[in-house]
Write a structure and sequence with these properties.
The protein is 48% helix and 0% strand. The chain is mostly helical. Helix 1 packs antiparallel against helix 2.
């Protein structure tokens, strides 16, 4: 009977190298994120209080979008903080 081919041996397992240490965030990162979140929240609150007539008059409910974007940028900055 014919002999089956032998399987090649796989190389032994070598663990991956240790990941490089993550850099710390700059000192201005957290204060900037907090300020952006507060400004965004205040922007939305002012928009509701003045019934979409401000903080930038003439653009109506787009003021809400601006406030939420500023708030979201601040929140996303907290996700990148180390």
């Amino acid at each position: 009977m014919p002999e089956s081919k032998r399987r090649k041996k796989k190389a032994t397992y070598t663990p991956p190298t240790a990941p490089a240490e993550a850099k710390e965030s700059p000192r201005w990162w957290v204060p900037t994120a907090v300020v952006l979140m507060v400004v965004g929240m205040l922007w939305v609150v002012v928009t509701y209080i003045v019934q979409a007539a401000g903080p930038i008059p003439g653009i109506g409910n787009l003021n809400l979008a601006i406030g939420f974007v500023v708030l979201l940028v601040g929140f996303l900055m907290t996700l990148r903080w180390r």
